[in-house]
Amino acid sequence: MKLATWNINSLSVRLPQVLDWLAAQSASGSPIEVLALQELKMTDDKFPVDAFTAAGYCAQWFGQKTYNGVALLSRTPATDVVKNIPGFDDDMARVIAGTVEEVRVIGAYFPNGQEPGSDKFEYKMEWLKGLRKWVKAELDAHPKLVLMGDFNITFDELDMWDPVGLKDTIHCTEEERYHLRALIALGLHDSFRLFKQAPKSFSWWDYRDFAFRRNRGLRIDHILVSNALKPLAQACLVDKLPRTNERPSDHAPVVLTLAA
DNA sequence: ATGCCTCAGCTCCTGAGA
């Protein structure tokens, strides 16, 4: 069973690439069972549900005008769908959760935070606290759980192209990483680091300055698995191929393979 | 310190992203 997360930075622009990628994965013999998308940047009425149905996917979505917006695609229907964090008042569409094949899947677009000390950074910290409280309850109810998405946080220097120059900048501050480790402490694991990875492995590269070609990126898109799922994890990879497309998203998809 | 790029929208500039 393959699960993936991808911040596609406008679904209107990237829909053909998403469909191509899903088709290519299926053609390779192991289709993506669940795909979490972030940054749809569209209202719910614009969501291309027919295109995904035709591609063999069920869809749940939670859109918003201009910014944010998340979706959960799955080959079998998702049940018990939740949008945003229960109990956390939020006017941004950032979270969608559902149960697929007995696995609780949470797809999330974490706040960017803009700059340490800013209002947006404070919002990010409050959002992270709200998320943690809810994920703790979700884990109690669903031991087989995956939390994946665009976290907008690096774990450590391995996730940074320039650990010195980017020290304490947004996505790389101690305060953000504290919250990321607190999520891990609930009983989750960074599936990417369960496996040997090439040095300088990233999931996002700035559009500017030929950052992708120079591999100047960050690893900010993650797939966390619960204790119960950890023994089933077989591989976790960043698929950089879609980042070489014409008009790519600035993020690449991350793919986790779980034993059946 | 800023632009470098990309996207959406109150669209020929601005805000935001990361």
Radius of gyration: 17 Å
Number of strands: 14
Please give the CATH class.
Alpha Beta
* Terminal residue distance: 6 Å
Give me the CATH fold name. Answer: Deoxyribonuclease I, Chain A
Number of discrete helical segments = 4
Uncertain runs with pLDDT below 50, 5 residues or more? none
Structural class: alpha+beta
Task: State the helical fraction.
Answer: 10-25%
List the helices and strands in order.
EHEHEEEEEHEHEEEEEE
Features:
260 residues; alpha+beta; Deoxyribonuclease I, Chain A; six-stranded mixed sheet; 4 helices; globular; DNA-binding
Question: Could you explain how this protein is built, in words?
Answer:
This protein is an alpha+beta fold and 260 residues long. 22% of the residues lie in helices and 27% in strands. The chain is built from 4 helices and 14 strands. It has helices at 11-27, 49-54, 119-141, 174-184; strands at residues 2-7, 32-38, 58-62, 70-74, 79-83, 95-100, 103-109, 145-150, 188-190, 204-205, 217-218, 221-226, 233-238, 254-258. The longest helix is centred in the middle third of the chain and has 23 residues, at 119-141. The structure holds one DNA strand of 18 nucleotides.
Describe the secondary structure blueprint for this structure.
Blueprint: E1 2-7, H1 11-27, E2 32-38, H2 49-54, E3 58-62, E4 70-74, E5 79-83, E6 95-100, E7 103-109, H3 119-141, E8 145-150, H4 174-184, E9 188-190, E10 204-205, E11 217-218, E12 221-226, E13 233-238, E14 254-258
Helix pairs in contact: 3-4
This protein binds one DNA strand of 18 nucleotides through loops.
